[in-house]
């Protein structure tokens, strides 16, 4: 609770609070002699048909209001802080966190990382469970603050510690067990980072999370992207090359404007360059390495194929003494397969300086 209570911002007309003469600027101190931590304590405590509310008026007078009302009837108060408490910030250093990667000089609110289970209930935010105490879990269960949205990332404790840069991140997963045992509805999220928590690790996570059914009602697997607040397209292009499926940058129609985000905003020209780079990177990642038609002449001249360097009888073993690689590269078996040929047997008589083909080899070949 605030040192001087929770300051009233608005008294709704024709409400109980209005009838009692409460005014903006007054502060609610306690209800039924219990301290009020946040909006959930307040909403829980005002549900009874008889309550005693300790109030500190804006003139400095403390009084007790005895209120008889219908069960569940609201008092008609709105407070300066909608949560009636400070927002809890995130202390993790997740490897994919865009806030940690933002440049200096942006508006202050962009740098706040929330990890507050109460905002998970109120606004749908996702939490990591790492800064939640057992008391916090007790309150979720007591007040039935569900669904709660959890960023699992992985169910491998050691890997989760690495991804969140928090040595307690693996142990925090046990808090989901308590929520499950209490029948609290949950939603899950996995931010998928290429080569880290995908593949077998993702399969493990999905399998492990199945134990929370039916209270875990969904698991969203979100490909990692980049929310870029740098001053060029370089970070976006690098992220796409590393597998990012989504990139985001601020945009401005003109550099003549002013504002805190202008420094990291791209204009029309830079947007065109980013779109072009995105298409190029996609084509590069999705294609396969093969020679262009125009390169075939050079390949035939410069590349080598396997040839016999002396006559070879049918059934004779291929060795370094009777095989080598030579230009041009017009033969069927390329120089890359030379080592594989050694030790195999000739399937027919082969003249000196003959380019080998697969039908000349008795055993099958991989390449």
Q: How large is the radius of gyration? A: 34 Å
Helix content: 25-40%
**How many beta-strand segments?**
15
Could you name the ranges where pLDDT drops below 50 across 5 or more consecutive residues?
none
Beta-strand percentage range? 15-25%
Overall mean pLDDT stands at 89
Task: Give the CA-based shape.
Answer: elongated
**Series of secondary-structure elements, N-terminal to C-terminal:** EHEEHEEEHEHEHHEHEEHEEHHEEH
Q: DSSP helix count?
A: 11
End-to-end Cα distance: 74 Å
Secondary-structure-derived class: alpha/beta
What oligomeric assembly is this protein in?
Answer: single chain
Sheet of most strands: 6 strands, antiparallel
Strands, helices and their partners?
Elements: E1 6-11, H1 16-19, E2 27-31, E3 34-35, H2 39-45, E4 50-56, E5 62-68, E6 77-79, H3 117-123, E7 126-127, H4 134-143, E8 148-151, H5 157-164, H6 174-181, E9 186-192, H7 199-209, E10 216-223, E11 226-228, H8 234-241, E12 247-251, E13 265-266, H9 268-286, H10 296-302, E14 305-308, E15 323-326, H11 338-341
Parallel strand pairs: 7-8, 8-9, 9-10, 11-12, 12-13
Antiparallel strand pairs: 1-2, 1-6, 2-3, 2-4, 4-5, 14-15
Helix pairs in contact: 8-9
Explain what the structure shows:
- This protein is 25% helix and 19% strand.
- With 367 residues, it is α/β, with parallel strands linked by helices.
- The strands form four sheets. Strands 1, 2, 3, 4, 5 and 6 form a six-stranded antiparallel β-sheet that branches. A four-stranded parallel β-sheet has the order 7-8-9-10.
- α8 links the parallel β11 and β12.
- α8 runs parallel beside α9.
- The protein is elongated and about 115 Å long.
- The N and C termini lie far apart (74 Å).
- The mean pLDDT is 89.
